[in-house]
Amino acid sequence: MTIVLLVVVTFCFRLSPSAHRARQMLFVYLFCLAALVVLWFATPDDLGLLGRSLLTEPAWLDFAATMFFFSAAFFGGALQLYNLCDRGFSLRILVDMLEAPTGVVDVDYLTTNYSSGRGLVWMYRKRIDDIVAARFIGQVNKQIILTAKGEMFADLFINARRVLGLELPQ
Amino acid sequence: MTSSPALVALVAAAAWFVVFVFVHIGGVRAGFENARWLLMSYATCFLGTLVTAIAVTAWQHGLHAVILAAMMAVLTSACLLALYVPALYTVLTSLSVQTMMLLRRRGGTLSEAELYNRFASRKIMEHRLATLLSSGYVTHDGPSYRLTPRGRAIAKFFRPVNILWNLGPGG
User: Which domain, by its residues, includes A78?
Assistant: First the structure.
């Protein structure tokens, strides 16, 4: 089903590209999840070929494991692959270095030519626009303001960094 | 009463994963380098998962059940790691998350100029290049940088996905 999901996502991205690709992927995931539930109930436990000793029992555990494995493949696999390719800062630096004419580049070259010449300001604008769209922050007169929802998530991340013993942004 | 091999595998994988999370966090807090410590602690706990699932199942069941338990344990553990690592790196490296944390610690409001100065500057590029350097993806070439074979392989692997998914340059 994960392969089906990747194929459907590829068709969606190529034939009907959206500004919100992560949301588009989430819809495909929900569609595939529903199809998986139907398939699970429609097929026999042994799929007509497995021996009894190879069945996951009880049946509820088999169902739960199926849903978990598929969801993990999406949230930890397919969605992360998209995130890396579309938003990965480090990965994009590596690709820019690969595409550089000489292969040897300095910090100024990478800062100016980040993402095939779009630059770091474009990179950060994209992130600001995304967290504005998600209503974590708002923009008023060249000021960036954290929303109540943003505060809640910021606290969560701050606590996570504290648990890891890492310094917080000052 | 005998326990289900699948249930044994799932419980073993979940229990060992909890151990891994505690060991990993403990190591990061103690100052170990994150990526290497993550890999080492996970590999150890993965082995623990496999040995536990196989031993407990073999005690009560035959070979087929042991194979089922081992496969379930491997898959469950790998899935848990696949969910843990992106969440961890979001906290560690995401610029969006860092922006929100900075705003929270600075009273909830900052000027656009200050944020751009901090997160879209030469300094952030230097910082990320230092991380890539320590991870072995790039190397120094005089005052400049070039890709290592490992960095080149990563870049070459992901570039076709951008093309296939029509994502543009990305970043």
Answer: 2-87
